[in-house]
Each structure stands twice: as structure tokens, then as C-alpha cells.
Design goal:
With 262 residues, the protein is mainly alpha-helical. 71% of the residues lie in helices and 0% in strands. The protein contains nine helices and no strands. Helix 1 packs parallel to helix 4, helix 3 packs antiparallel against helix 4 and helix 4 packs across helix 9. The chain starts with a helix and ends with a helix. The protein binds zinc ion. Zinc ion (ZN) binds next to loops.
Length: 262
């Protein structure tokens, strides 16, 4: 039951992310009842908007102008759905009471983070308004986590330090490089992801994992000649992917890492 609901929600929210990223870039209202083809601007009917299935059915081309619809659409829809399902399956405690509200807020945050990653990937910038909106939701979620933890001070300090470390490290890098290596958006994202990582250790782990993924992906792209050594690649998508990896498998990574040395 919950799984079916999450699959439907995941596909719907994923489809929303695709339209949303384009809307904020075009400075259109965030939410709009009508969807259109980004190429021919033809209004799309409900049958064209079924996540993944419409794309497969139309064999990846627009029904009206026959131009290719980017693979981005089904990939984003599938990613949001998978993240919803993993969150549910790997959720550390019983989903009842306040925990349900925390889970619901987390679902919104996943959607927003995927939108941020997609935006950064497409336009090489992290929209400030979206980061602050997510920060607002994350603060409400964190407050609920503190209140339901029973150990208020420890829980609060963990969240606050996680955020300060996440944002602080990027702020220092930003200052040292005078904004050349990373942008102000990465600093704001650092505070948000640090808060979501919920402890200083996990916050550091997010940055560490992001650097490894970033280096691996860059090397792979350079060796495939898809990227020049000098080209800039956005760091946001790596940080956001790293946060999800740490949320879901942080415990395992830390355990494995300790095992390497002890
Ligand atoms: Zn079209």
C-alpha cells in the first residue's frame, strides 16, 4: 500500500521537477496547471504527461513537433521514485506520529534537492530562492527531529554543528579562491546539506564522498574526451548525490572505513 502510494507520488513529483526546473529558469510561475513542449510550446494533454510511460510510448519524441524529448525526463522521474522508495525501506525508525510528518517533509526535500541538482547540471548555477525554501523546510524538519529525540541539547548541537561545518568548509574555500573554485550557491548548499546530514561527522562524510564521486566522474569524462581538463563542472549534483548516499548508507561507509585501519 505505502509502496504503491510512494511510486505514484515519486513519478508525479519527478515529472513536476522536470517542468519546475524549466519554469524557474524561464522565470515563469513555480506551479502551473498547463504543461507544454519546451521545443514547440504545444500544450501537452494528460496522455502525454504520464511519467516514463508517455516517453516510452512516444519513443522519446514530441507528439506534435517530433523533436527528441531529452532522456532527462524519464531519468529524473525514475530517480525521484527510487529515492522515495529507498527512504521508506531504509527509514531508521517506525513511521508513526511525528515520524510521519518528518518523513513527509523529507519527501519534499528530496524533490527539491533533485530539482537543485538538475538545475545546476543544466544551467551551472544553484537558484538561491530554491535553496532558501528548502532550508526553511529543513529547519522545520530538524526542529521536529530535536523535539522527538528526547535528548534536545545533543540533538540540537549535532544538527547545528553539522550545518556549520557543511557550510563553513565551503565558505573558507570560497574565500580562499575568491569565488573561483566554487560559487556562493555551493556555500548555501553546504549549510543545507550539513543540516540534513544531521551531525558533524556525517556532514564531513558528505563532502568526502562528494569529492570522490566528483573526481571519479571528472576523470572518466576526461578519459572519454567528453570533458576538457580546464572545463568547469558543477559541484552541486555531486554534493546532493553524496548526501543521499550518506543518508542511506552512511553507517555502512563509516563501519567499512574504520575496518580499513583497525
Ligand atoms: Zn514539441
Amino acid at each position: 500500500m505505502a509502496i504503491t502510494l510512494l511510486v505514484i507520488l515519486g513519478l508525479a513529483f519527478g515529472s513536476f521537477v522536470n517542468a519546475f526546473v524549466w519554469r524557474i529558469h524561464e522565470k515563469k510561475p513555480w506551479v502551473n496547471a498547463r504543461s507544454m513542449c519546451p521545443n514547440c510550446q504545444h500544450e501537452l494533454k494528460a496522455i502525454d504527461l504520464i511519467p516514463i510511460l508517455s516517453w516510452l510510448w512516444l519513443r522519446g519524441v514530441c507528439r506534435y513537433c517530433h523533436k527528441k524529448i531529452s532522456l532527462q525526463y524519464p531519468i529524473v522521474e525514475a530517480s525521484v521514485t527510487i529515492l522515495f522508495l529507498l527512504s521508506y525501506i531504509l527509514w531508521p525508525s517506525m513511521l508513526r506520529g511525528t515520524e510521519i510528518i518528518i518523513f513527509a517533509l523529507w519527501i519534499f526535500i528530496i524533490t527539491g534537492l533533485v530539482a537543485l541538482a538538475l538545475y545546476d547540471l543544466r544551467y551551472m548555477i544553484l537558484p538561491t530562492k530554491l535553496i532558501y525554501s528548502l532550508l526553511g523546510v529543513a529547519i522545520i524538519m530538524s526542529a521536529l527531529i530535536v523535539f522527538s529525540s528526547g535528548i534536545y541539547l545533543v540533538s540540537f548541537l549535532n544538527l547545528a554543528l553539522g550545518s556549520i561545518i557543511g557550510g563553513g568548509i565551503f565558505y573558507v574555500i570560497y574565500l580562499i579562491s575568491r569565488g573561483k573554485w566554487i560559487g556562493g550557491g555551493d556555500v548555501r548548499l553546504g549549510f543545507l546539506l550539513g543540516l540534513l546530514a544531521a551531525s558533524p561527522g556525517r556532514s564531513l562524510l558528505v563532502i568526502y564522498v562528494a569529492s570522490i564521486i566528483g573526481a571519479a566522474v571528472s576523470l572518466a569524462l576526461i578519459s572519454l574526451k567528453r570533458l576538457k581538463r580546464s572545463s568547469l563542472i558543477p559541484f552541486g549534483p555531486f554534493l546532493i548525490s553524496a548526501l543521499f548516499i550518506v543518508q542511506f548508507y552512511g553507517q555502512h561507509i563509516m563501519h567499512w572505513y574504520r575496518g580499513l585501519f583497525l
